[in-house]
Amino acid sequence: MAEKSYSVEVPGGEAPRLLQLLRNKTSSLIINISWQGKDRIEFTPNERNTSLDNLLVKIRLVCPSAKIEEKDDGEVKQVSEVPVGMWIEGRSISCPNRNCVTVQPKEPTKPKFRLVSWNPVTLQCFYCGRYIKEDVIGQQLS
Amino acid sequence: MSNSTFKGRDFISILDFRRSDLELMFEKADEMKRFETNGTEILKNRILATLFFEPSTRTRLSFETSMLRLGGGVIGFSDPSVSRMSTGESLADTIRMLDSYANVIVIRHKIEGSARLAAEVAKAPVINAGDGSQHHPTQTLTDLYTMKKEFGGIDGLKIAILGDLRQTRSASSLAYGLSKFKNVKLYLISPDALRMRPEVTDHLNDSSVEYLESSDVNKYLPELDVLYVTRLQKERFTDPAEYEKFRGSYMVTLKMLEESKKGMIVMHHLPRIDEIPLEIDSTPNARYFEQAANGLAARMALLSLIVE
Ligand SMILES: [Zn+2]
């Protein structure tokens, strides 16, 4: 079975911000810096990478204007936008509110965040209800 | 809507309930008024656990009295230093232990999101008695019930919320609760630095609630049905001179009441410091003691619907 691969086009100079996200999560990775004023990253996710959806969401969180294409057995299709209101789970983003129960070391929480807006990128912590702003998300993910 | 849709449900945010749920709770609270003094047995053999990790005498006493008037029993603590928590036990473990004793758990904690975590861990329904800066659903239930009793309904009311709107959970929670009703107009009155959080105003926008933000309530007094007062806390100001400047303009005066619409009521979640001077107590506008008293029927209604 042919592997799915992805092509991500972002504004020139933004590709390096995504590399940290993709590290150890791809079986192949090609970067074209400033391809016609845009950067382009082509990658094939690791077979074992079970959180592909999360990975694509994170790429969009770091670069909201990213155009993502999926190549599946020669067929190319656009990966659609993540709709506002979607929940993003996991510990790759942590709530910046130091008084939030998700950052208390002993408590067994599973952090999750609602996507409030793409412009600016804003998430909302399920537990404390606080907003997390674009700059904080960018810092944490890249 | 039947009572059975409430049984076993958590009450973490006022947003967890629909308008029709709130209206059923108002009806139930009216029924509960007759048991306020002599009590009933409808929750006989049921146990309420009150876990107050942060002091709040009024809210705790109101819950405990509600459960006792309903014929149930109460366990719990109001000083975490006497519990295992002081030796470093996690909140989740404390909840798991009490979950096996209690039919309903009421929690107040200074860590934000604690009530949500407690609800995930516990099989028994969990009621949030206040956490963080946004949620205090039983205070809001009491506030909405008081407005409903006073005006016959909440739709179309013009309500100013005055004070520290950024940190006061009763204020945010009330704004969330009012968003369930139609044609309510909100006047969010605070110093610039203490405006309602964007999480709350975004919700008001999404719910098409008409609201304005201002630092001066006086020009709106002739329009208002309700003036809901909260405390300005000195420690929230980086400059003490700023606090002194604002303090005076966030105190209710007899002159303000003279300029207000006839029938406007003054509410406060109590305890007050000096934002409502004693001379206001005897005016026909004061409703904060009735409001506090309504908390008993409102909490009895909630407990009976969740636990019965
Ligand atoms: Zn949080």
Structure description:
- The complex is a heterodimer of chains A (142) and B (308).
- Chain A is an alpha+beta fold and 142 residues long.
- Chain A has 2 domains: 5-78, 2-Layer Sandwich (Alpha-Beta Plaits), CATH 3.30.70; 87-141, SH3 type barrels.
- Helices cover 19% and strands 37% of the residues of chain A.
- Chain A contains 3 helices and 9 strands, in the order E-H-E-E-H-E-E-E-E-E-E-H.
- The radius of gyration of chain A is 16 Å and the shape is globular.
- In chain B, the strands form 2 sheets. A 5-stranded parallel beta sheet of chain B has the order 7-6-5-8-9.
- Chain B has 10 helices and 9 strands.
- The radius of gyration of chain B is 19 Å and the shape is globular.
- Chain B starts with 18 loop residues before the first helix and ends with a helix.
- The A-B interface holds A 97, 99-102, 104, 106-109, 116, 124-131 and B 88, 90-92, 110-114, 116-117, 121, 132, 134-135, 198-199, 202.
- Bound molecules: zinc ion.
- Zinc ion (ZN) binds next to loops of chain A.
